[in-house]
Structure formats: structure tokens, C-alpha cells
Amino acid sequence: xxxxxxxxxxxxxxxxxxxxxxxxxxxxxxxxxxxxxxxxxxxxxxxxxxxxxxxxxxxxxxxxxxxxxxxxxxxxxxxxxxxxxxxxxxxxxxxxxxxxxxxxxxxxxxxxxxxxxxxxxxxxxxxxxxxxxxxxxxxxxxxxxxxxxxxxxxxxxxxxxxxxxxxxxxxxxxxxxxxxxxxxxxxxxxxxxxxxxxxxxxxxxxxxxxxxxxxxxxxxxxxxxxxxxxxxxxxxxxxxxxxxxxxxxxxxxxxxxxxxxxxxxxxxxxxxxxxxxxxxxxxxxxxxxxxxxxxxxxxxxxxxxxxxxxxxxxxxxxxxxxxxxxxxxxxxxxxxxxxxxxxxxxxxxxxxxxxxxxxxxxxxxxxxxxxxxxxxxxx
Length: 379
Hints:
Layout: H1 2-14, H2 24-30, E1 47-53, H3 62-65, H4 82-90, H5 93-96, H6 110-116, H7 139-144, E2 145-149, E3 158-160, E4 171-173, E5 179-190, H8 196-212, H9 220-224, E6 234-239, E7 246-252, E8 255-257, H10 276-279, E9 280-292, H11 296-308, H12 317-320, E10 321-323, E11 337-340, E12 347-352, H13 353-364, H14 367-378
Antiparallel strand pairs: 1-6, 2-5, 3-4, 5-9, 6-7, 7-9, 8-9, 10-12, 11-12
């Protein structure tokens, strides 16, 4: 009945000066509103979306960490400790294991090790149940970020000439609009018990200064290729009102942290029971380059995901992974790997087929699962 009423209303408006609601966008694109009627074009209701920060590849080998006293705690043998979490997050090779020798013949995990070019023969991986070694982004940053500000405005370089005899002036475009410049953005994070995120970001910020001082060294392949190992990339996904489709995709170029903002935790105010930085703290990131409205960003985003999780590639995804149905996303929250569909720009979430089958079977045995089945039956 509701559809009939809406349809009748739209038909009535179509014959009036206001015009059809359904065709408002097409009308605005095609012709001039010469009757100055009300603007029926729907307002933009984009959602905040997501902030993703890519994991770096620091060298957290035991031999490296042993050179710096402040980094000794990262050598913890406790697989569920904060120190082990920080070490494995900032150095993905710690979990996968690594080798700089000839590639092994073993078929075990070949897809994964082929993708990163490393093999677990020389140095075995260490265990950390708090870190998903196939996740390319740092979940804690995404989950705790409150604000990201400071992105650079796009500006066209221009050139102006001296006025002529009649004081007329001329100006023209005099440069490229692409932004490859340096700039700084500020992250504001929600404080968490134990200051885990603050500690992780401090170690990450501290690390490159130790490289400069000669106390630490990069992995051999990074040294031979003259690559920086502490840089990251900040991805910003703005979602449409359904929170399912990416409406705007932007990303920084190479980025690294330049402040830690630990000092406010040392401030003292007897009149305040809870420290202000304990509630929220800010850290600054220096970025090089800013990309937007570029279709290659979709490919780069998906490629980044695939580099850490080869099963997400087009070659293996259908065999090893399963796209989580929309109605099941809440049940599988905090699990999964993102992919932007190049055709529809839908942000899809995938998990291992084996894990999905086990968890879905458990879910269907619960009361909520039975209610879900009943809802499907009623449709």
C-alpha cells in the first residue's frame, strides 16, 4: 500500500510545477529550472566511514631490539602480552617467519609466502593471538580513532601579469593540481585502559630515530633496495547513507608519525580526578602526497589487502574465502578482510570459508539463529 501511495504522489508532483521526486537528479543534470520551483534533489547524507592505516615493516628481530635498552620489553615471551602485540603488529615478519635464502620447495602456505617473497625456513615465526597476521591494516587505530584533520586543499597554481595601459589584468593557470607536497594531519584517539595504542605509536615513532642514530638496522632486503621500513599509508573511506558503498576514496602517500604527545600524561592537576589525555590524545603524522578521484585507488586498496592475505586475490578468493552476507555482518564483527568492488564500489567483507562454516553453525543453534531462520522463512 505504501508503494502505491508514494507512486501516486510522485505522479501528482510530476504534473505540477514542482516535478517528479524520482527524476529530480536527472532533471537537475539535464535542464535549467526556469520556473524557480523548489529543489527536490536529495541532500548528501554520506556517513563518516572508515580510517585505515597500513602496517609498516619495522625490523623487530631479537638481535636488533637487543641493541636498545628501551626496547627490551618487546622481547617478551608471553604471546598475549602488550609487548608481543606491538612487536608483531609493527613487524609482520615476526609471525610469518622469514628467510633471505633460496625459496623452499614446501607447499605449506605457499600462496602466503609467495605473495610477500619470504619463506619461514631460516627464522620461525612467533605466536601472538592478538594479531591477525593476514590483516594489512592496524585494527586498533581504526577502532580508536575519533578525528583525522588537516588534509590539504587542492589549489590551482596561477600566474598574474602586470596591469596594461587601461589597468587590465591577465592571469592563467601555471602548474599542476596534483598534490605531491608534504603536509601534516592530526589524529585524535580515544584513550584506552593500559595506553596500548599510545605505546604502539610511541615505539613506531621512536624506531626511525634509532635508525638515524645507528642503533638499529633495517632488514637486509630493505637496505639493499634503499627502502624506508617505517612508512605507512592512510586510507580514508567515506560511505554512502547505507554505509555499504564507498562514495569517496582518498589516501595519503608515504606517511610517518612525527609526534608522540606523551608529555600531557605527566601533567598534574589536583582538581581533576581523571587525566584529560587519558580520555583523548592526539598524534601528528607527516604525509607526502594526497590522492583522490583516482580510479586506481580501488586497485591499490585491494592490492594492499591481497599482499597480506593472498586468499583475497581474484585467483583464490572464490575457493578460500566467502563474502559475509549483509544480515550476518554484525555477528562477524571484528573479523574479516575488506575489499572494494571495482564495479559497484560496495565495501565487501570476507572471511575464511572454514571459519564461516564453523561460526555460522554455532550461531544457527542459538535462539538468535533460530529467529534469523524464521525471518528468512517468512520472506
